[in-house]
TrEMBL record:
The keyword Heme applies. GO terms for molecular function: peroxidase activity. InterPro entries: Cyt_c-like_dom, Cyt_c-like_dom_sf, Cytochrome_c_Peroxidase/MauG, Di-haem_cyt_c_peroxidsae, MauG/Cytc_peroxidase. Its main location: periplasm. Keywords: Heme, Iron, Metal-binding, Oxidoreductase, Periplasm, Peroxidase, Signal. Residues 36-144, 189-306 form the Cytochrome c domain. It is found in: Periplasm. This is Cytochrome-c peroxidase. PANTHER family: CYTOCHROME C PEROXIDASE-RELATED.
């Protein structure tokens, strides 16, 4: 007969591997963010005029209504171009060790300058963005208040800083998992069993800490490389950043918070079913074929990582003026 998992013992072990997600208020206090910076960042997150076409905003690919991602295989950007990678969630991204599947940006402010300029994403230039923002008087006011005492408050750098401030508030506390860590008996036996497997079979070696991942880099296929249908040969991960042979097909271990909300999975976005993603991790990273009941339990555990979604009121954006640059092709 199966023995019920010992919740208290597992809680102790889990608390040594993971960390409870703080609330937005705690993050705001820690980072000393101001309301003015956060409000400006929120407006910019939803501002399609940061893109050359003026129809693509951060929220197009990181929709806050759908777990902070777009739920398609790989993102679609400027001119309906398909990008090479699946869009990771912006929720809790503030807790990642580095940003992007290959960790090429060190923080959210550095990250935010990427998509605005990427030709397959928003296809704009810093000058274009600054011209748009300077043409709209409401933005002059908002930047002045968000960055007081600076000579040129409207700048591409300050745009990125404001976006970082807003994104830092996009945290999802109070998941069943977090409540369990703090002492409540919120997990059922199947979920507890899944957590036990997750820790004792070795997933936790790569997916630990506050975001249950998002920290270290590992070859996708430590033990056995998945097929080219899941790991396309053209995307060599961190190798493309460092040009070091040992970084070939190395990626950041995905943060698993809210993972149930953000299919499809992996940087290629080729796997839609979370159970299948778990099974693939078993063979590719652990060299084990997980049993059906183990896969089901681990998947049930992963569902407990879904936290309270941030409540974000859609901002009313200021109107364009005659001098505002027109959308470009
Ligand atoms: C990655 C924010 C616009 C698609 C990211 C990440 C963040 C982010 C924080 C890293 C998350 C992580 O590594 O866990 C933003 C902001 C945007 C923006 C603030 C607006 C300025 C867009 C747009 C698209 C897009 C418009 C789609 C056209 C992606 C993709 C990645 C990504 C595909 C992964 C890229 C890679 O790893 O190489 N974004 N994003 N993002 N975003 Fe965005
Ligand atoms: C990605 C779960 C073990 C490294 C993922 C994803 C899931 C997952 C669900 C997809 C994340 C997403 O698409 O956003 C698990 C489970 C494991 C396990 C349940 C145990 C059975 C490991 C181990 C390592 C590892 C041991 C390191 C040796 C990675 C990496 C990725 C990833 C590098 C990103 C792959 C990519 O490029 O798409 N994991 N994982 N995982 N995991 Fe694991």
């Amino acid at each position: 007969m199966a023995v019920d998992p010992d919740a208290n013992k597992l809680r102790e072990q889990a608390n040594s591997q993971f960390k409870v997600i703080p609330t937005a208020e705690q993050v705001i206090a820690d980072k000393k963010l101001t309301v003015e910076q956060i409000d400006l960042g929120k407006q910019l997150f939803f501002e399609p005029r940061l893109s050359k076409s003026q129809i693509i905003s951060c929220n197009s690919c990181h929709s806050l209504g759908t777990g902070g991602s777009d739920n398609i295989r790989t993102s679609i950007g400027h001119g309906w171009q398909k990008g090479p990678r699946n869009s990771p969630t912006v929720l809790n991204a503030v807790f990642n060790g580095a940003q992007f599947w290959d960790g090429r940006a060190k923080d959210l402010a550095e990250q935010a300058k990427g998509p605005v300029q990427a030709s397959v994403e928003m296809n704009a230039t810093p000058k274009y963005v600054e011209d748009v923002l300077r043409s709209i008087p409401e933005y002059s006011e908002m930047f002045k208040k968000a960055f007081p005492g600076t000579q040129h408050p409207i700048s591409f750098d300050n745009m990125a800083k404001a976006l970082e401030a807003f994104e830092s508030t996009l945290v999802t506390p109070h998941s069943k998992f977090d409540q369990f860590l703090t002492g409540k008996n919120t997990l059922n036996n199947l979920e507890l069993k899944g957590m036990e497997h997750f820790m004792n079979k070795g997933c936790v070696a790569c997916h630990s800490g506050i975001n249950v991942g998002g920290q270290g880099y590992f070859p996708f296929g430590v033990v056995k490389k998945p097929g080219a249908d899941i790991l396309p040969v053209s995307d060599r991960g961190r190798y493309m950043v460092t040009k070091t042979a040992t970084d070939d097909y190395v990626f950041r271990a995905g943060p698993l918070r809210n993972i149930a909300l953000t299919p499809p999975y992996f940087h290629s976005g080729e796997v839609w079913d979370l159970e299948e993603a778990v099974a693939i991790m078993g063979t590719s990273q652990l060299g084990t074929t997980l049993a059906e009941d183990e896969i089901k339990a681990i998947t049930a555990f992963l569902h407990t990582l879904t936290g309270e979604q941030p409540k974000v009121e859609y901002p009313t954006l200021p109107r364009r003026r005659p001098q505002t640059p027109k959308p470009g092709e």
